[in-house]
Amino acid sequence: MLRRTVLKSTALAAAASFGMFGAAFAENPVLKIGFVGVTSGPAAAWGTSNQRSMETRAAWINETGGYDIGGTKYDIEIVSFDDQKDPKRAIAGMEQMAQAGIHYVVGPNVDDGAAAVRPVAEQNGIIYFPYAFPKELYTAPASNAVLGMVANYQSGPAIYKYLMENNGVKKVAFVAANESDPLSQRDSGSAAAKALGLEIVSDTVTYQVDTTDFTPVLLPIIQTAPDLLVLSGVSPANAPQLIRSARELGFTGLISTETAQDAAVLQEGAGELANGFISVGGASTAELASDQMKEFVDRYTKMFGEYNDESNTKVYALEYILATIAANPAGMTDVEAFKATMDTFEAPNPYMKGDAKLKYVGTTSFGQKRQVSVPLVVNTFNNGAFETLFVAQVD
Amino acid sequence: MEQILANGLYLGAQYALIALGLTLIFSLMNVLNFAHGQMYVFGGFVTYTVVAQLGLPFIVGLVASALVLAVMGALIEVFLFRPVIRKSKRDESTMLLAAGIAFFLDAVILLLFGEKQRGVPKIVGGVLNWDMRIIMPYDRILIGVLAIALIAGFIALMQYTKAGRAMRALAQDRVAAQLMGVDVDRYSMIGFALGAMLAGLVGGLLVTITGINLGMGGPTSVKAFMMIMIGGAGVISGAIAGGFILGMMESIGLTVLSAYGDITYLAIFASLMVFLAFRPQGLMGKPWG
């Protein structure tokens, strides 16, 4: 008898708890946003910072009651897929997103993955936000890809011009990993530098991404005595080693890149040898970051143990997706409505101080608005932290 | 030219130390340890944790890497390879197991240490500049010397200790060694632990120079396999020769061929294919295994 009562009570308690949990989950409808990018292998830092930024922001939104779209609060669920930097897996990931009924995806992180998923995205009504620079992804007839950051052919000329005018740079050398993204960034960077009248003293030296000793790689470049050494498309894993080797070989000129970097990684890998290193970041410095940005960094750090400075840029894609859908709720399931909204969309930028706006840009580079407007913040690294060198706007 | 030779010697010393552990395990157990690179990465992260996170001296980090990897190697041999070797006569069973361990370690490293590149401060400052003919930071010289000292210590251990003699006997003929009273299980475990320990030590040494990240494991294993293919699989002297040859080829190629793009490893692989066509057992390996 006692046993039967215990069993009954347990069953009732279980049913009640499931009911309560069900009610809790059913409070808000769920909006799923996808991520397809690299979260394993040597380039894991790129995709992981994307995924964690999205998860941090989604948890924050859900904790504070959901995201208001057309008067309804939605909980945000991030559905992630690791493409391992392999275009075939990126296609599989995008197909998985389509099967899950997801219309908005952040990623992929690299050129070939972003190009590979284009047919799947266009056939299945998916808007995706790659971190890849080929112009054909964003130029008509392509219309479903939105560049999630500033491209190197936009930031490079601005940096070179600044350094010509302020630091008297005349001779520039490029070094790149032997992969599609860095090589295309090197070629466009070299062309931009030539157009500005800079002398290119070296742009043929490349290295394997798994190189562990960069001294022999850099030796022939340093012998050409450039004023500026550009690390084209350099990954956060390779940047400290390249800087360290260049300085140890006696190079005293400037070193720059057009990719985002992480201050802690630079400090650990190169220490004071990285002082003066120029890179591109988002709202990354104290003078630019709003209170919401500071809270985002704090939440990210609490959630994952350590912040990644690349997330200063990666924080934006999810915000753009949600804010654009909020501006036109029909865009939640109809990407054509979303695209129509992109042309006129404007909202306050919650991550920057002042009156900065979230808006789509890219008309100059792509002939249509297929790029998120994130501030072009050019930083210098000094004693473990980034300092703002200058800020510019794309388009 | 002096700089090319210096770079080649430095690269060769670290490569040889990586290859030693791999060839030791192969010679004792006929196991191609595809997880060797991941063990190297794990060792690097252990040193990083001890030195950069806990603030302890570098030597403590190095010892911790050696101990952790030795224990890991012993456990892997006892609980994974030993039962598989006992139950399966097919070589591919151990190869699949090794590949599985490599993927497993990759996932563990990501969970424990994260996705970021890590590094520890230079252990010695300053750069040797010999009239612009050789430029070499002192920390690289120190790491190169330590690597050579470790290689010498390993050779002495194999040559002059009871355990070393037992392992050499095992490598030459497993059955004969068993008949002569060598405890095969015990020395297989010690050999695997020693091989893993060497991988961990190199990871710990190089985290001060190259840093470490979770993607380094696979490429390190590939390079280690290349070295033992050049020198001859399962031969200690062959692994050392293979390491120094690969280091020197890389240094020469990166300097001489830099104007033609990244073709150094293309040239190295092409040379290796031609070489293996004429001498498939490598420089010092025996044609019969």
Counted up, domains of chain A total 2
Helical amount of chain A: 40-55%
CATH 2nd-level architecture of the largest domain in chain A: 3-Layer(aba) Sandwich
Quaternary organisation of the protein chains: heterodimer
Characterise this structure:
The complex is a heterodimer of chains A (395) and B (289). Chain A contains 15 helices and 16 strands. Chain A has 395 residues and is of the alpha/beta class. Chain A has two domains: 30-149 and 286-374, Response regulator (Rossmann fold, 3-Layer(aba) Sandwich); 152-259, Rossmann fold (3-Layer(aba) Sandwich). In chain A, strands 2-3-1-4-5 form a five-stranded mixed sheet, sandwiched between helices. In chain A, strands 6, 7, 8, 9 and 10 form a five-stranded parallel sheet that branches. The longest helix of chain A is centred in the first third of the chain and has 25 residues, at 2-26. Mean pLDDT of chain A is 89; it is low at 1-7 and 12-25. By secondary structure, chain B is mostly helical. Chain B has one domain (2-214). Chain B contains eleven helices and two strands, in the order H-H-H-H-E-E-H-H-H-H-H-H-H. Chain B has a two-stranded antiparallel sheet with strand order 1-2. In chain B, a hairpin with a 3-residue loop joins strand 1 and strand 2 (134-137). In chain B, helix 2 (36-53) crosses helix 8 (184-206) and helix 3 packs antiparallel against helix 4 (91-113). Chain B is globular. The A-B interface holds A 39-45, 48, 178, 204-208, 210, 212-213, 215-217, 219-220, 236-238, 240-241, 248-250, 262, 264-265, 268-271, 305-306, 308 and B 3-4, 7, 10-11, 14, 52, 106, 110, 114-122, 127, 129, 135, 137, 140, 206, 209-211, 213-216, 218-220, 250-251, 254-255, 258-262, 265.
